[in-house]
């Protein structure tokens, strides 16, 4: 019995210690979109065929870096192998790093997914190891705010500028994250052409370019934050390599820069002296009221226009609503805006155009309008008024007089006032019609109908004979061309979208070629070596020339990721890849 118990204990211990541990961990579980995170996959046995996750919604910055640790302490051995990656998110939200796989003793082990929450950009980004990224003084992204203490609904501008030192070259840039202006009504100002200008930053000479101009109107008082804008910039940095003439060569590296977040302290509009008719207009405005005519006949129409012009939150104001005499019929206004947005705010005019129809003759007065706004320059409320408008409506000879017509009626408006309505004012419209039936020629069953039916019936065997003798070989050729275009779009679309960025383009091009070969040859990922590919392609009757061109292009992809390349070279390689995919697909 003792021996049996001892054997069971040894067996349990062996089973526990022999169990494979394969885990994943990240240096952080919450980060800004402009930060990096370190991901480590660690296994305590010597495994093979490690497969990393696809890092969806992340961009691989570095890795994999492989490290092995083996120790023997007090007669006990320990072993661990670690695969390390540095990645950066490409969007906000609650993201996830997928499962990695490894084979140990012909068994596949997987890690658990890692959840990571990505927020807006932070002012001092980390490199994923707990350290801040060392950003040199060569590049700065700055958000310049016109006013840090505006009033509620007062327009302010934010201009994003990229400053670059004279000794640094920037190839291109792309936005990593768009700032969200919470609590602001915002509008971007289009920059038709970006110009490089000379300026200074921190007392030193710099070149700069304006990337974005935005006008903001705060919609609530208190402290509001403007989130930072983050960019990924391709920068040329000097290397240790030199050309034939001894001149230093430059490498193209990717850098992430962010404009720091800004805090705006929005002042509430003063309650003291606020008029009862104030509706939220802030700026400097003018009020103008006009009519298309002041003398007209009864039942004729006229236009009554109310326009507010000036500078301020024009698109956000409430237009004053006029009140018309009860005997004047009015229709809903047509609202138009002629507003342009500049760094100083919105300028222009907004207008309400009413159509009025007096029902009866007489002298009518349309009362004046008033409009109240807050002027942030004088920090005071102002009210402007229009003049009253008098209308002289004469009797319309084409309409029965309201005083003589037997079909006049008296209506009462909402205020209890009586006015006369002439029910005969539309009598000039003819009510009786003289319609005649439209005689159409009969087509169905006619001689022309049967001739056309017979012609198209006879054309069917003629077309079949022409196809049989090969007159439509061009159609088959066009189908082959369409199939080639479809294959190219399927596998090379991602690579085509990154032409101009050598490292990303050639990585995507190489991946596309591998995906195509994997799909066509039916081989597994760990079998995608060049020797296996050559052998598999040869078995599929692919000619040697196409195989050599493919291997040459894949080698170029591996080398080109670490060297600069021109856009026309990348375009040429993309076209060569399209031709190769089509050729190999046809031969297989």
Top keywords for this entry?
Immunoglobulin-like; alpha+beta; 5-stranded antiparallel β-sheet; extended; single chain; 588 residues; 4 domains
What is the first-to-last residue Cα distance? 67 Å
Q: If you compute it from the alpha carbons, what radius of gyration comes out, rounded to the nearest whole angstrom?
A: 39 Å
Strand content: 35-45%
Give the strand tally: 32
Low-confidence stretches at least 5 residues in length (pLDDT < 50)? 11-17, 131-135, 402-423
Summarize the model shown.
By secondary structure, the chain is α+β, with helices and mostly antiparallel strands. It has helices spanning 2-18, 447-468, 473-497, 502-521, 530-539, 544-560, 567-587, and strands at 22-26, 30-32, 37-43, 48-51, 58-73, 76-89, 93-97, 101-104, 107-110, 114-119, 139-145, 156-164, 169-177, 184-189, 197-201, 204-218, 222-226, 230-242, 248-258, 262-266, 283-291, 295-297, 302-312, 328-330, 334-342, 345-358, 362-366, 370-375, 380-385, 389-394, 408-412, 418-422. The protein contains 7 helices and 32 strands.
């Amino acid at each position: 019995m003792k021996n049996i118990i001892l054997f069971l204990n040894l067996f349990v211990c062996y089973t526990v210690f022999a169990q494979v541990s394969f885990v994943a961990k990240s240096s952080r579980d919450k980060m800004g979109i402009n930060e990096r995170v370190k991901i480590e996959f660690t296994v305590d046995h010597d495994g093979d065929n490690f497969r990393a996750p696809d890092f969806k919604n992340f961009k691989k910055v570095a890795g994999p870096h492989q490290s092995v640790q083996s120790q023997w302490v007090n007669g006990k051995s320990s072993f661990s192998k670690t695969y390390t990656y540095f990645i950066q998110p490409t969007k906000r939200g609650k993201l996830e790093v997928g499962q990695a796989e490894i084979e140990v003793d012909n068994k596949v082990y997987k890690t658990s997914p890692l959840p990571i929450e990505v927020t807006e950009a932070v002012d001092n980004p980390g490199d994923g190891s707990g350290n801040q990224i060392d950003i040199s003084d060569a590049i700065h992204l700055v958000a310049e705010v016109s006013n840090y203490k505006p009033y509620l609904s007062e327009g302010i501008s934010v201009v994003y500028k990229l400053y670059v030192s004279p000794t640094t070259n920037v190839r291109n840039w792309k936005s990593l994250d768009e700032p969200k202006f919470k609590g602001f009504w915002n509008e971007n100002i289009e920059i038709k052409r970006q110009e490089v200008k000379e300026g200074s930053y921190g007392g030193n000479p710099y070149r700069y370019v304006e990337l974005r101009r935005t006008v903001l109107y705060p919609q609530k008082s208190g402290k509001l934050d403007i989130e930072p804008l983050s960019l990924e910039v391709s920068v040329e940095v000097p290397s240790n390599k030199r050309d034939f003439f001894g001149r230093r060569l430059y490498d193209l590296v990717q850098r992430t820069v962010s404009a720091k977040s800004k805090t705006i302290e929005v002042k509430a509009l003063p309650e003291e002296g606020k008029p009862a008719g104030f509706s939220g207009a802030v700026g400097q405005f003018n009020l103008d009221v006009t009519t298309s005519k002041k003398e007209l006949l009864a039942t004729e129409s006229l236009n009554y226009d109310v326009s507010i012009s000036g500078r301020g939150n024009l698109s956000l104001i409430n237009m004053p609503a006029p009140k018309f005499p009860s005997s004047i019929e009015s229709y809903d206004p047509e609202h138009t805006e002629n507003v342009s947005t500049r760094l100083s705010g919105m300028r222009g005019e907004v207008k309400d155009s009413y159509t009025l129809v007096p029902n009866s003759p007489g002298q009518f007065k349309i009362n004046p309008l008033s409009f109240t706004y807050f002027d942030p320059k004088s920090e005071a409320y102002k009210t402007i008024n229009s003049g009253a408008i008098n209308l002289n409506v004469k009797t319309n000879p084409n309409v029965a007089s309201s005083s003589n017509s037997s079909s006049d009626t008296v209506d009462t408006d909402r205020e209890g006032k009586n006015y006369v309505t002439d029910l005969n004012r539309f009598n000039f419209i003819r009510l009786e019609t003289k319609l005649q039936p439209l005689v159409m020629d009969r087509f169905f069953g006619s001689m022309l109908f049967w001739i056309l039916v017979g012609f198209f019936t006879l054309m069917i065997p003629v077309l079949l004979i022409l196809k049989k003798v090969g007159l439509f070989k061009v159609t088959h050729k066009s189908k082959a061309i369409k199939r080639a275009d479809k294959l190219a779009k399927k596998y090379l679309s991602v690579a085509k979208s990154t032409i101009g960025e050598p490292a990303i383009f050639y990585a995507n091009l190489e991946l596309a070629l591998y995906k195509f070969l994997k799909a066509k040859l039916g081989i597994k990922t760990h079998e995608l070596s060049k020797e296996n590919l050559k052998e598999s392609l040869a078995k599929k009757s692919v000619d040697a020339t196409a195989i050599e061109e493919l291997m040459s292009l894949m080698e170029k992809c591996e080398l080109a990721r670490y060297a600069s390349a021109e856009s026309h070279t990348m375009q040429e390689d993309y076209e060569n890849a399209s031709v190769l995919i089509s050729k190999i697909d046809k031969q297989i």
